[in-house]
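[#protein-structures] MJ: dropping Transcriptional repressor NrdR here for a structure pass
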Amino acid sequence: MHCPFCRHADSRVVDSRTAEDGSSIRRRRQCPNCMRRFTTIEATSLSVIKRSGVTEEFSRQKVISGVRKACQGRPVGEDDLAKLAQRVEELIRARGIAEVDADEVGLAILEPLRELDQVAYLRFASVYQGFDSLEDFEAAIGSLRAERDAAIAAAEGADGGAGSEQS
Ligand SMILES: [Zn+2]
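AK: finished. structure tokens for Transcriptional repressor NrdR:
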């Protein structure tokens, strides 16, 4: 495994741990040349079945390029997109299946994107879920508002009760 910083051809494993769901192994490695550390993830192959029926390897980069347009002009950086793509991959891998439909990848994007940026979420959902009327937008915005209000109420109610029932 090449060092991602200096391209040195060798690296030393300093720590290994299996993901909680057992789907992958993370290895912390150190480059003996530049001494920097990086993480590798060893996982079973995950395939995406496209609408055309063609199967391809799951790609975080494809997730990012799919979401990037919805994030134009929003305060969403490359780091945020990389983290989002990682969340999406983890969500899908947690199911422990080797193949998913492209549609399921789209669905897995919705939740983390909503947490990241609500406007980008609305844009993505409107294209992905085929919003074709103002009512569709109103329904989506209504559920975002309800969630926000519930979060505010939970925060206000959290003063006295440590074991809040909101989750
Ligand atoms: Zn290096």
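MJ: nice. The longest strand covers residues 12-18.
AK: one more thing. Residues 3, 5-6, 8, 31, 33-34, 36 surround zinc ion (CB under 6 Å).
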